[in-house]
TrEMBL record:
Gene it is expressed from: gatA
Name of protein: Glutamyl-tRNA(Gln) amidotransferase subunit A
GO biological process: translation
Xref: HAMAP family: GatA
Domain Amidase: start-end pairs: 1-439
Coiled-coil zones: none
């Protein structure tokens, strides 16, 4: 893997921090010692894992791709990192991302954009673009991403890799630097379905340090998936009409081919979803509102960039730190988030978005009574050229329509590679009701 990093990294730039080879070798030797006398090796023994740079790693710089946290070294591990280490996994680096996970291309990173290994003039997607690019360039074996509105699935689709956003509350958010807390989930990214299931097994499960963690018995997703692969049940699959119609032709034709394959075995039916025009708006109102509140803590005193405070008012220090520490996209979202929460506008925007979210959830509860899973293209477009979305942010926001639904309703969703158009990857999204990850993995495996 280090040889691959040496060859690819200067072109791809998937990482913000790479653990030096010697250090990793030392860690691996210790690992061998630690498990020398055990009869079975732990499930991730010796496997390299790249971690998105908004997940806290003890003693390893965690920047969120922001100047604000450029020199931040967490004193503790996120729960998912603790679990990976206990399972014998080896963290080999921290991957590039959009600043504070706000973006869809990894271009809002305060450091540099990551490039798509399939076409270096294009973006690998985002915000977990570094993790996806590292996977496809062979610069890691497994990766972690986070997904607030598509940040795992979007880069998975744009790089022809596999990415799963788990059910809200299935994976602990303890140690994940918050963007939109009611939407955020950490999830596995990999080069095949089985690897996803293996990593999900390790990171999922109740954690008392995350108050939104779901209290259920630990599941074995590999076994549950294998059971389904063996039984091969015929499922009811819903084809979401609006999300196909809203996609570019190049994407649509590949996605329909994958659907044909699926429908050759399962029972398919087209289905229609309401209010497609409001989905993206509701998502961005809620995400920005929560972001404005979550990011208030970067005040240069408790968190973030340090400035001299001598003889200066707190408000000036606060303003300086935030002017310098945050990039344009982050500032825009804090301002808009504060706006939709402010007295007089709250009812018009924020409260309405919350009401819409409840309506959408009810609607999908109904849909999931009729269907075991629903499918759509993951992204309605092909990987954008670098710069394309920076020039047209509305286009960028609108391209999230297919993915944000799962976050708004707390449901699990996967993106799997299904083919290429003009040598650019296309992904299919499969979504199911909360805690139905095994069904999603079964379908993903079938299409692999
Ligand atoms: N593109 C979406 C946004 O910018 C999703 C980001 C994410 O999932 N972190 O909010």
């Amino acid at each position: 893997i280090y040889d691959r990093i040496d060859r690819a990294e200067n072109k791809v730039r998937a990482y913000i921090t790479i653990i030096p080879r010697e250090e990793t070798l030392r860690y691996a030797e210790e690992l061998v010692k630690r498990f020398r006398d055990s009869r079975v090796l732990p499930p991730l023994f010796g496997i390299a894992i790249a971690v998105k740079d908004n997940i806290s790693t003890k003693g390893i710089r965690t920047t969120c791709a922001s100047k604000m946290l450029e020199n931040y070294i967490p004193p503790y591990d996120a729960t998912v990192i603790e679990r990976i280490k206990a399972a014998g996994g080896i963290i080999i680096g921290k991957t590039n991302m959009d600043e504070f996970a706000m973006g869809s291309t990894t271009e809002t990173s305060a450091f540099y954009p990551t490039r798509n290994p399939w076409d270096l003039e294009r973006s690998p997607g985002g915000s977990s673009g570094g993790s996806a690019a590292a996977l496809v360039a062979g610069e890691t074996s497994l990766a972690l991403g986070s997904d607030t509105g598509g940040s795992i699935r979007n880069p998975a689709a744009f790089t022809a890799t596999y990415g799963l956003k788990p059910t809200y509350g299935l994976v602990s958010r303890y140690g994940l630097i918050a963007y939109g807390s009611s939407l955020d989930q950490i999830g596995p990214m990999a080069r095949n379905t089985r690897d996803l299931a293996i990593l999900l097994n390790i990171i999922s499960g109740y954690d008392e340090r995350d108050s939104t963690s779901i209290l259920i018995q630990k599941q074995n997703y590999v076994e549950l998936m294998d059971r389904l692969i063996y039984d091969e049940p015929k499922l009811r699959i819903g084809i979401i009409k609006e999300l196909f119609e809203g996609s570019e032709d190049s994407v649509k034709s590949i996605a329909y081919k994958a659907v044909d394959k699926l429908c050759g075995y399962h029972i398919c039916e087209e289905l229609s979803i309401p209010y497609t025009r409001q989905i993206v708006a509701a998502y961005y109102i809620i995400a920005m509102a929560e972001a404005s509140s979550n990011l208030a803590r970067y005040d240069g005193i408790r968190y973030g960039l340090r400035k001299s405070v001598e003889n200066r008012d707190w408000i000036d220090v606060y303003s300086d730190v935030r002017t310098e520490g945050f990039g344009y996209e982050v500032k825009k979202r804090i301002a808009l988030g504060a706006y939709v929460l402010s007295i007089g506008y709250r009812e018009m925007y924020y409260i309405r978005a919350l009401r819409f979210r409840r309506m959408l959830r009810d609607k999908f509860n109904e849909i999931f009574k009729r269907f075991d899973a629903v499918v759509s293209p993951t992204m309605p477009i092909l990987p954008p050229r670098l710069g394309e979305f920076i020039e047209d942010p509305i286009k960028m926001y609108l391209s999230d329509i297919n993915t944000v639904i799962a976050n708004l309703i707390g449901a699990p969703a996967i993106s799997i590679p299904i083919g290429f158009s003009n040598r650019l990857p296309v992904g299919l999204q499969i979504m199911s009701k909360p805690l139905n990850e095994p069904i999603i993995l079964y379908l993903s495996n079938q299409l692999e």
